[in-house]
Specification:
8 helices; about 25% helix
Length: about 250
């Protein structure tokens, strides 16, 4: 990512992790956009009066390392591919800036609603099966019946609304890797914007800006697109073909 793209966020006032915790939005609506670097920069210019940016010291861009789990037949992937309205994703997310690791279950429900549940975990808890109760309750699966299926790494900038009802994530430098690290694909010059908000949040300056510059929302899923890019021979990919074609020239 050309760092000049993110220069506009240097003019944003900052907020802390404690501030951000008040806008967790674990039960929310969300809208995603896949944008170019030029579109990302255009989205940020002039929005400092509406949003603040997460900062720790001088750092405003943080690394995330995610490992997705799925059943052996890839049921979570197939549910999304086949258009199931109620679907689930399971992942371990490592926040490299703080060292924290969470096990997360993200459920997408009919009508664009997203519910996320998570618990902090340690390597010892994972080895001892200490996460089984959580997974059984939230995803109906035991960790022993699931397999690691995809690594996703990226850098994230997080904005929150000054009105406190909206959170926006800007993900860049996306890289997908197979669990054995033998397959790898990176997306160059692209970013994923996700606008997360309460059901009755009112107007969104970011959504207005995206509409004004002609960017349309997408159902882009890091897990599904990454899996389809890495395993085109092993997985059904018909549902994602238009997105895969558009990404073909920028992947390596």
């Amino acid at each position: 990512m050309n760092m000049a793209v993110l220069e506009p966020i240097e003019g944003f006032a900052s907020h802390s992790l404690a501030d951000q915790a008040r806008v967790e939005l674990m039960d929310r609506m969300d809208t995603k956009f896949l944008v170019t670097e030029a579109e990302l920069r255009a989205c940020l210019i002039g929005l400092d009066e509406h949003y603040t940016v997460l900062a720790q010291g001088d750092c405003r861009r943080f690394e995330y390392h995610t490992l997705y789990l799925d059943t052996p037949p890839r049921q979570f992937y197939l549910d999304h591919h086949n258009g199931k309205l109620n679907r689930t994703k399971v992942r371990f997310r490592h926040y490299l800036g703080t060292g924290q690791v969470f096990l997360e279950v993200k459920r997408r429900l009919k009508g664009m609603r997203t519910i996320k549940q998570r618990v902090p975990v340690t390597g010892q808890e994972i080895a001892n099966g200490g996460v089984d109760t959580f997974l059984l309750e939230q995803a109906g699966q035991s960790v022993t019946r699931m397999l690691p299926t995809l690594f996703v790494d990226y850098r994230r900038v997080t904005l929150i609304s000054r009105k406190g009802h909206e959170r926006i994530t800007l993900d860049t430098d996306l890289q997908f890797q197979s669990p054995d690290r033998l397959r790898r694909v990176s997306l160059h010059g692209q970013a994923v914007i996700e606008v997360k908000y309460q059901r009755k949040a009112g107007s969104s300056p970011m959504l207005d800006r995206l509409r004004d510059i002609g960017v349309r929302s997408t159902s882009f899923s890091k897990y599904c697109i990454g899996s389809a890019l890495l395993f085109p021979e092993e997985l059904k990919t018909n549902r994602f073909k238009s997105q895969l074609r558009s990404l073909n020239g920028i992947c390596n």
